Amino acid sequence: MTEASRPNIIRIAHAVFTVRNLEASREFYVDLLGMNILHEEPGALYLRGVEDREWTLKLEEKGTSTVRHLAYRVNGEADLDALVTLAEREGLPYRWEEELDRPRLLRMQDPFGVPVVFYHVSQKHPWLLQDFHLHRGPGLQRVDHVNVMVPDVETTMRWYMDTLGFRLSEYTVDEQERYWAAWIQRRGGVHDLALTNGPGPRLHHWAYWMPDAMSILRTCDILAGARQPERIERGPGRHGVSNAFFLYIRDPDGHRIELYTSDYITVDPDFEPIRWLRDDPRRQTLWGARTPRSWFEEASEMEAFDGGTVQPVAGELTGIPVHVI
Amino acid sequence: MTEASRPNIIRIAHAVFTVRNLEASREFYVDLLGMNILHEEPGALYLRGVEDREWTLKLEEKGTSTVRHLAYRVNGEADLDALVTLAEREGLPYRWEEELDRPRLLRMQDPFGVPVVFYHVSQKHPWLLQDFHLHRGPGLQRVDHVNVMVPDVETTMRWYMDTLGFRLSEYTVDEQERYWAAWIQRRGGVHDLALTNGPGPRLHHWAYWMPDAMSILRTCDILAGARQPERIERGPGRHGVSNAFFLYIRDPDGHRIELYTSDYITVDPDFEPIRWLRDDPRRQTLWGARTPRSWFEEASEMEAFDGGTVQPVAGELTGIPVHVI
Amino acid sequence: MTEASRPNIIRIAHAVFTVRNLEASREFYVDLLGMNILHEEPGALYLRGVEDREWTLKLEEKGTSTVRHLAYRVNGEADLDALVTLAEREGLPYRWEEELDRPRLLRMQDPFGVPVVFYHVSQKHPWLLQDFHLHRGPGLQRVDHVNVMVPDVETTMRWYMDTLGFRLSEYTVDEQERYWAAWIQRRGGVHDLALTNGPGPRLHHWAYWMPDAMSILRTCDILAGARQPERIERGPGRHGVSNAFFLYIRDPDGHRIELYTSDYITVDPDFEPIRWLRDDPRRQTLWGARTPRSWFEEASEMEAFDGGTVQPVAGELTGIPVHVI
Amino acid sequence: MTEASRPNIIRIAHAVFTVRNLEASREFYVDLLGMNILHEEPGALYLRGVEDREWTLKLEEKGTSTVRHLAYRVNGEADLDALVTLAEREGLPYRWEEELDRPRLLRMQDPFGVPVVFYHVSQKHPWLLQDFHLHRGPGLQRVDHVNVMVPDVETTMRWYMDTLGFRLSEYTVDEQERYWAAWIQRRGGVHDLALTNGPGPRLHHWAYWMPDAMSILRTCDILAGARQPERIERGPGRHGVSNAFFLYIRDPDGHRIELYTSDYITVDPDFEPIRWLRDDPRRQTLWGARTPRSWFEEASEMEAFDGGTVQPVAGELTGIPVHVI
Ligand SMILES: [Ca+2]
Ligand SMILES: [Fe+2]
Ligand SMILES: [Fe+2]
Ligand SMILES: [Fe+2]
Ligand SMILES: [Fe+2]
């Protein structure tokens, strides 16, 4: 696809999760993580970080714990038209939907089964960035990226790069140069979208940018203070990939949230992607800490285009890195 | 006085301030600074930091903005007897008082007019140190020290050292070796009590220990977020004296609070006090920042033994350091 | 100018300063700030931050303290052609130059007298980002932005926006809506280029991104430790504009360096620029701290196209904000 | 023993380790951890933190990896006499030794086989606390405590408390109230000496106070940067016991060093020791992280009074906490 006809995707934008108990979710996201409620409806919360001018995470109470969709913001309405053209050309199912503040969402199922949504028009709200007296908990700042587990990382990565113009920042291969993970971006940071090998499509995690490493340590303290240390799954630590300081936590439905800060910029046209070997102990945590098995195995199922959930499928690459607890 | 007969003072313990508008004070101390209310009565708040097992600051609503007293904890009841002996020998006015949780307070006026209180028995309460989910604002940790402005620093210092066993950590002199300030301690830190030259006795500031420098920066952000940057009087910065990272803020009555962290220990018997020249620019703020004039001139008046306030008296040393805004 | 024919500027890229004493500069930039020497020649140092894959600051020993040029990286060689077309159309002087690692620099004088350079090809070097054992001092991370003082902020801003596609993030106006400062960007951050009102063109400051606020506090400690607190001109503090945590320091020639961290992203197509009133005390330092007069008045002169320095010219707006020391 | 006749121990003071390869140790302690060399002799390094006015860790190159002794500072020479009296009364072997800067060391073997040394006179040196430009690496600040593994924690604890006046801060018991660990102090902090159940006597770890949590994260980054992540054994994290932020690392001989910051004060006479259950997951790491098995099992052997090493002996309590990797 030529650069000119390609839809111009700006950035990862929001996620919609279903949860089984909205009050339990509220305790986690609002009371402990300090996320800010932008809107509230019976059975739904619209949350954001302090820099977000829009809601970036919607929680809907259902009898399930799934991902309804992942949304990207596009540059203009013409980009939505280009996406319709793309969907028709590739035979991808699509339809128009709407959400609060976002009247025109193009919902599509990507070739790998991921429910993705694109939108341009969005009602903006005053941010809370400098209303520090209103920040609560560790002060989550803004949506940063999403990580999706897929059974064929390389094919998925190629499609997002060729069709939607994503650029590769870092990638993990094994000794046979087979892709186990890839970090791709539109926004000039390390990634808007990460792809991780495993049965999928499933949501591996949804990530927020944090003001600094200390705010991530504070998250651990707050969860421990509330006698919920089991919500901390992995970290804190520094990633080899991305160089970011990170923490992975699990919400009451098991949805995995990453708190993330201090990566680097990738705006140069000749940025050279960084290659890691799968079993390099510094890759996942630069400090060498091993990763819990649950981190490799557990993920959230995704809503299918016609309802229900997409049945995860395993790929050719099985097993997990050696550096595991 | 011999070591044996000397009252054994453990540490600086609490302050009682009068304020003109308790709701304004509550907004400052509780809503913005995040101090924890241990008790509440009509017209009074009893506050503490997250490590304090007792209240460490009482605010009483009156038509004044003064300091009712400054309190030190002593090792046992026998030390209170020793203090009575001392008061009688030196002709210092004293009487027994009580406060909530502290049934037996020995109130005394020191030879310089400072209303000081000593107590041993105190009702302890579970601390909040590891209840991180309950910490609010920057998370003030524990009472650290008090700073009193007096017209004759050297004489006052000698009395506290000779009579009450305080030890000298650091001091400021001019070219004629006249004392402009002194930091003295009982607890093994840099100071429980600092003395600053100026008309007095007045309270220069009351200080809390903070968990780290980042929590002090967060205090600035919170005050600015609440559109009250004028509450920030000086700092943040690093002191030359004490090497601590600090911030001075002013409450709605003008009482000055210092947030303070990261000094050093002084437990060695041969600890050699550190001498600073008054006009060394690194003394007050190691980074060379100049100090606002208000910091040298403004302070809180103190309650007299028989009611009313102690009239501040100027000493021989007048003027302020050159490094001022 | 249409978007299509416009040169595609990626980001601010490097600066070349002349200095009077390279050993004094080396002590400041290398020994104290911990900048990394990428190349060294007789009379010149090529420095970078730990994330920079290129040198981003060149110091040349001359009998002057000026700015030889400010460089922007462009997307490709075609963008250099477009810049030549622009220069010829607008009658701007230009010529081809080279620097170490950068064989093809287009040097131009912008309509306001600023010596700007554009390049595409650049020799990359392995970064030091994850070689933490080699980081020295506070660990400057990467070039962030440049701030140029000009006598007519609005006209300069319009030219960079219309001709080179910069986008406005924030701006300062007075009660008559006259522009006193503007922050404009290409890279998706708050700014690549800031424009400040004053006699110019002169370099107001050159800025590096820091890993976090603590590294900025460490810079102050290091300069104070070396008994050079006078190198600290302003801060540390949080900017109202940009929300970044900052510090301004002066090198031995008086060139002003800003250390900067934690602003926000601006990639949305409908990002709405933030307007500040010139005399809002929270604008410059959110915490209300006043700015030293030198910060408004002193700046580095710039090299003229044909040698010598550009004579600074004052504009219509004179005076400085009220919130000054 | 009465308070009056008891030796007055001020604080834990230094350790002497033997190492197999002093150059490897130098790389670890000096090049990576940034410890400061106070003295250097053929085959020995005398190291200190930036606040230490004395050396606090001596490394001697031998064909072994043991602990020659652990030293405590006492208040005066009379306290050494009292210790001799104690040794004779209890039949503990003792002799006079000397070290550089410390001419009169009383070396004793405690009843549990630990080689302890007591001294009063010590040559002080200017500290480096405010020479921030000379700090290297993460900036270790001062000796904080020692942790010794012993087969009978309760008996050892009682001896140090009864005979040497240590006070209990925190302790760990199992469901039968048997002691598995104890933290005891002289200095008014959480501990000078910790006792951990296990075959002993062996040195579990030697700990330095750090300026803040960020400096501990920086240590991890530095070790990872140097491609030595395997030196990181446990953490970083926050302890349940002590509330301190911590990291455990292993030197090239396997000696375990803890970096530690932000505990609390214990000066009150009625401080009530904190009791933890052995298998409470928040005890060891408040955030619930499991501890590597090596942390429970490996420790450094200690020099016997007459040469050779003390053969570690197991006690009645065997096994390790359940919360282990
Ligand atoms: Ca800190
Ligand atoms: Fe991630
Ligand atoms: Fe103070
Ligand atoms: Fe700037
Ligand atoms: Fe320890």
Please summarize what this structure is.
The first copy, chain A, has 325 residues and is an alpha/beta fold. Helices cover 18% and strands 36% of the residues of chain A. The interface between A and B is medium-sized, with 17 and 17 residues.
Walkthrough of the structure:
- 4 copies of one chain form a homotetramer.
- Chain A has 2 domains: 9-124, 2,3-Dihydroxybiphenyl 1,2-Dioxygenase, domain 1 (Roll), CATH 3.10.180.10; 140-301, 2,3-Dihydroxybiphenyl 1,2-Dioxygenase, domain 1.
- Chain A has an 18-stranded mixed beta sheet that branches.
- With 325 residues, chain A is an alpha/beta fold.
- Chain A is globular, with a radius of gyration of 19 Å.
- In chain A, strand 15 and strand 16 form a beta hairpin.
- The first copy, chain A, is built from 6 helices and 18 strands.
- The A-C interface holds A 10-11, 51, 73, 75-76, 124, 129-130, 142, 187-189, 211-214, 240, 243, 262, 264-265, 267-270, 272, 286 and C 10-11, 51, 73, 75-76, 124, 129-130, 142, 187-189, 211-214, 240, 243, 262, 264-265, 267-270, 272, 286.
- The structure holds calcium ion and fe (ii) ion (4 copies).
- Calcium ion sits between chains B (212-214) and D (212-214).
- The site of one fe (ii) ion has 7 residues of chain C, from strand 9, strand 13 and strand 16.
- Chains A, B, C, D: It holds the Pfam family Glyoxalase.
- Chains A, B, C, D: Its cofactor is Fe(2+).
- Chains A, B, C, D: Its EC number is 1.13.11.2.
